[in-house]
Amino acid sequence: MARVSLRSTLLAGAFALCVAPASAQVLEAAIDQSPAGLDPHIITAFASFMVVNGTIYEGLTAIDKDLRVQPGIAESWTVAPDGKTYTFKLRSGATFHNGAPVEAADVVSSLKRVLSKDIASPLASRLAAVDTINAPDASTVELKLKEPAAPLLTSLATLAIVPRGFEADKDSLQKQPVGTGPFKFKDWQPNGFIQLARHEGYWKKGAPKLEGVKFNIVPESATRQVGVSSGQYAMLPNIDAATALQLKGKPNVKLAETLELAYSLVGMNVSRPPFDNAKVREALNTAINRDEIVAAALFGAGVPGGPLSPALKDWAVDVKEFPCYKSDPAKAQELLKAAGVQTPVAVTMIVLPRQDIKDIAQVVQQQLNKAGFKVELKTPELGQFIQDWRNSNFDLFASTNAGSPDPDDYFYRTFRTGGSTNVFKYSNPEVDTLLDRARATTDTAARKADYAKVQKTLACEGPIAHLTYGQLFTALRSNVQGFEIIANRSLSSLADVSVLK
Amino acid sequence: MIGRLLLNRLADLALVLFSVSVIVFFMIRFIPGDAVAIMLGANTEVTPERIAEMRARLGLDLPIVQQYAQWAGKALRGDFGTSLWTGRPVLDEIAVHVWPTVQLTVLSLVIGAVLAVPAGVLMARLRGQAADAAMRVVTVAGLTIPSFWLGIVMILVVATVAPGLQALGYVPFSQDPLGNIGRLLLPALALGLPILANLSRLVRSAMLDALSQDYIRTARAKGVSERKVLYKHALRNALIPFVTSVGIMTGYLLGGAIVVEQVFAIPGLGRLILGAIAERNYPLLQATILVVTSGFVFVNFAVDLLYLAIDPRVRA
To answer: Out of A4, A219, B49, B304, which residue is the most buried by the measure of CB atoms under 10 Å away?
Structure first.
């Protein structure tokens, strides 16, 4: 008895103490993971990108919600007929958060910083084709390339422009970012929150509309859901189907959704049996039933996908054109027989330790075991997984990759002989020729034809069985206006968001 | 007496800290995948030369014994280095995370330990009566309900009853004293109620044990009031196991209540340590573990002092 009254007294106290003062137009968002740092040229985690890309930082170009290249800090650009010289004209009136105007010297310094050995930026390879970076005058930047590089404009959207002076400084921006975006950094309490405030000198007139954005770091999914249902949080950006479906139909909560660029996959090691045999790879693809994976592991919120996301409408080949996508266990068994391997084919699959991937891997395991394989699943800790992945120490792995708006960015490094993420050791001279040719021309129609051929070759015999592209969701309070969800997870549209009273 | 105890404890502390630092240093490095691998993640495009450069930048390319010697040398001079990921000084990161944990520890001990004494005494006094039985059932429930579940239920209840209430997250006391305590109440309850259940049972049985001793009968025969018998004679003896338990619990609480911190989105030491392990943030992890270990040792020291105050025989 005594305890009950005590508890109610304390709760009543809590009620009285912490009724929120209505904070004016600061959008409260909740994200699951703490960013590991805020330097745009060093970070690699989804959580970090989400907080800084398009909000604090902008590149020379930008990617819109249809995944097409738009002007960013560069107002316009021209490409020389030989495809080897890009001349960018900078936007007048763009300023950094420290008040300085954005000049060509800042852009040159930023791109050189990405290439610098001191910074050791993992993004350096995106500028691999660049030979020289110059500033003919204060508002013009000129990039000369060693060879033509079609994906350059897309890549530049991911390379943030920072003020000059950070070329050898690898610590400052991690803690105290300075960019050109609609929001400037205000405060960061590790594991607590990151707060951004309106950048008064933002080049786009009338933006941003919000006073600021606060990213609360809330690791527990149930807590985030309660927070958005009760109105403490106005936004849960980039959540998966499982979380979104639980919020569907909650009063005053709405969902924005789009098809993801990221995809789930099964990777095959081509440098050792049995997946060195193209027939076995085709058998695996034929054994997999992608519709079933969407239904069982993604709660129906997704689509079967080939080597490119259907979200890339300009590039992706319809999966109906891939013969092996017609799931047929009997045919898979025949293919295994024709390949001359002993059935059941016993293989181990290492699984990325993430719930959605574990779910998918279990469905795949059952499908493969019905079609002449005998799959053992292993879910190592993340560090072990990455190590095995990098050292090509696997038969099969199940994972997820973030896609890219330009096909070259994914295909070249993954499927080109010797590509930097070709851990499968895949080598196909025909594919190599097509990839080399498609990156060296800016003729979109020709590139499209080449990438269509690449997709058809890779879909059934490549080292990756592409499984599904999930639906990506953002949960919002219904009074949040103007948000556009973008498949690459950028929150750049926060610049146009306002909160109705 | 106290001086000698303090010296002993300081010697213990030095030994414990050294051993812990060695164990943590080598164990975290035995886990496959180092900081650079985790930083880059799976499927990022980097050449082996880039990885080597990053490793060199973080000093991870040196032989492991040399890395330890460098770290220990600096640590002895008070320099614990910077976080591998954010570049912020490790001690700054710890300072930010210590306060929520200390506050949570104190609040849940206030709820758990302070109330446990009257509750336990009450149960002992009412022994055999229906009220005692009822309270014991409640305490068993309190013992078996996990804190994280209690936490989620409380969040759901509060969100339903008072949706406007800001019950999640953490604000520093210096910024908003009322908001700070308001937000910590629910997590402190989630942590404190199981402690209350545990400790009140302990006080009850220790009291019953003490009350059956000969000296209690003697005291009663002398005509000492029942109140005085309970609180002066019995309770004082029952306090020794209680203080030991509270000490151990305090030590654990100071290490961070990871699950409750996760549920209530509180940036405490538990999440700091968990994150540091997952990120292979070696300097941060080492320093944090040392801080937590020191906390444990000092709590033990405080418990020893309490023994001295409670039990004159220890002083002899």
So the answer is: A219
pLDDT tens digits, A436-486: 999 888 888 999 999 999 999 999 999 999 999 999 999 999 999 999 999
Q: Which CATH architecture has domain A61-172?
A: Alpha-Beta Complex (3.90)
- So where are chain A's domains? 3-55+181-252+478-499, 61-172, 263-470
Query: How many C-beta atoms lie closer than 10 Å to residue B3's C-beta?
Result: 7
Q: Give A 426-485 residues with CB within 8 A of chain B.
A: none
Tell me the per-residue pLDDT of A64-83, one tens digit each, with 9 for 90 and over.
988 889 999 999 999 998 88
Yes or no, beta carbons of A191 and B46 under 8 Å apart: no
What is the CATH topology of the domain spanning A3-55+181-252+478-499? D-Maltodextrin-Binding Protein; domain 2 (3.40.190)
Of A117, A175, A420, the CB nearest to B88: A175
Predicted local distance difference test score (pLDDT) of residue B315: 66
Statement: residue A348 has pLDDT above 60: yes
Q: Helix B282-310 and helix B64-76: axis angle, to 10°?
A: 50
H helix intervals, A274-399 = 278-287, 290-297, 329-339, 355-369, 382-390
Query: At the top level of CATH, which class does the domain B98-278 belong to?
Result: mainly alpha
Instruction: Sort A226 into a burial class: Cβ within 10 Å, 0-12 / 13-18 / 19+.
Output: buried
Phi-psi region of B34 (alpha: psi -120 to 50; beta: other; left: phi over 0): beta
pLDDT surpasses 60 at A18: no
Domain boundaries, chain B: 98-278
Interface test with B, best of A3, A7, A127, A420 (most B CBs within 10 A): A3
C-alpha closest to that of A191 among B270, B177, B105: B270
